[in-house]
Amino acid sequence: MRDDERYPTVVEPDAYPIPVIAFPGPDIQGHDKLSAPEKDTHPPSDESGLPEVKRVYGFRRKKIILVTVVIVIGAVLGGVLGGLAATGRLGNSFEVLSSIPSSIANSPQRSGPIHKTQRSVAASISSGAEGSDVQVFYQALNTTAISYRRIVNDKSKAEQEASLSIEPAWGTPMAAVAINGSDPLRTQLFYLSVDSSNRTRIVEATFECQGDSGSFSTVSNTVISDKVDRLVHPETKLSALRLGSDLLRVFYQKIDGSIHAFGRDDESGWHDNRVRQNAHPGTAIAAVAAERKAVHLFYVGLNSMTLRVSIYDDRLGPKVASAEVDGTPSSDWRPTNTLAGIHVAGDGSFRCYWSHPNNGDIYSYWRDDSRWIGTHDDCWGRVEGGFAGVGWSDQVGLYYFQDGELVVSAQDDKTWQKPVVV
Q: Is 254 exposed, middle or buried (0-12, 13-18, 19+ CB in 10 A)?
């Protein structure tokens, strides 16, 4: 039996978006100035990326009346592709494109230097009774080498260069996760590399650090996209999420615009799952969760070009349509936008920070029950390149480059400090 027969599906349009709400009083992040961008009044209709599940093994079917031939054709195609994705491990079975379309044939930049807006920053954290241990990774503008700083209880170690056997791409996006409470400290970095055939690959590097040293030793450095690397979008961004010591997810975009996640649940290796379809090419991706049943995935939609969020149980996968977080007009959303998703245990909030593409101003959305609230704080600096964040207890750290320096904007118990050089 073919996969599309075993898992019949149709594409379900999005529900109406959840509005962004601004209140005149202070919010839980300690801001006294709240703002929400202008709301887009056109609800997106094609960005949920979700197949509706019909009756399989006794489960109840849902019926949708399709009123146009275009929708019928779209539903059939969505059913076939959705059925392939429903297997949970796509591997080569989803490689329906025989060649990379010419419109996206350009891989990451092959030579340098890069512009300051092309720089990426990644941050990971291990926290516990002894405080916080933050690891920040970034590239200089004139080299492919990746540097890092270890910051223990707000005290920064000297800058070091990561020892990597697989050369990173110029201006590569990066994502990092640490094993919380690991001893010795163990953290993982994900980045892009370009091979001799001009194909984009996703690479993993695992580092260890003994005691209070500021220098990491490289445990492994391998390509994790071997089976699907020809389908990795050359402009993909990356986000990594650790849901436990043995549960790891790495989110990326394929050339068809869909967002996928490499998953690793044990030592058996990586598997690939589709999470969303119809994302804007080159969209920033931010994934954050406090537990497996509430993964928050932020990205920019394909046609509306607005910020969207998919909230789902990692064990089940997305079962409902994604929702619009921000209805900002499309001129405010570009592939160069950067996102940072953070969960703050102290107040239980989920937050998504982003920098404005024109002036680098930082904005935030946080969720209160079913509402997303837009905020801005004058203590935040201006991002000229790279953007990452971490949260622990009641504290938040936003790391980015400003005036050529790596800086941090820190929040401690609802109070934000002006950016300081790391």
A: buried
**Which amino acid appears at position 199 of this protein?**
R
Whole-angstrom CA distances from 26 to 325, 368, 409 are 20, 13, 19
Tokens read off for 306? 């607005």
Contacts 24+ apart (CB under 8 A), 355-362: 355/382, 355/383, 355/387, 355/400, 356/332, 357/332, 357/333, 360/384, 360/402, 362/398, 362/409
Sign of CA dihedral 300, 225, 247, 50: positive
Give backbone dihedrals phi and psi of 91, rounded to 5 degrees, phi first: 55, -135
Nearest CA-CA partner of 288 in 296, 278, 276, 300: 296
For the chain, report the end-to-end CA distance as a whole number of angstroms: 58
Sequence ranges of the domains in the chain = 1-91+227-377
Tell me which residue has tokens 């930082």: 362
DSSP annotation of 421 reads: E
Contacts of 23 (CB under 8 A, 6+ apart): 34, 373
**One-letter amino acid for residue 190 of the chain:** F
pTM: 0.77
Over residues 53-80, the pLDDT tens digits come to 333 333 333 333 333 333 333 333 334 3
CA distance 4 to 32: 53
CA nearest 296: which of 373, 352, 363, 364?
Answer: 352
Q: Two tokens at 77?
A: 């195609």
Rounded CA separation 225/206 (Å): 16
CA distance 407 to 362: 13
> What separation in angstroms does the CA of 397 have from each of 136, 144, 195, 367?
11, 26, 35, 18
Q: What is the pLDDT of residues 77-109, one digit of tens each?
A: 334 333 333 333 333 222 233 333 333 434 577
Cβ pair 155, 132 in contact under 8 A: no
> How far is the C-alpha of 237 from the C-alpha of 253, rounded, in Å?
7
DSSP state of 224: S
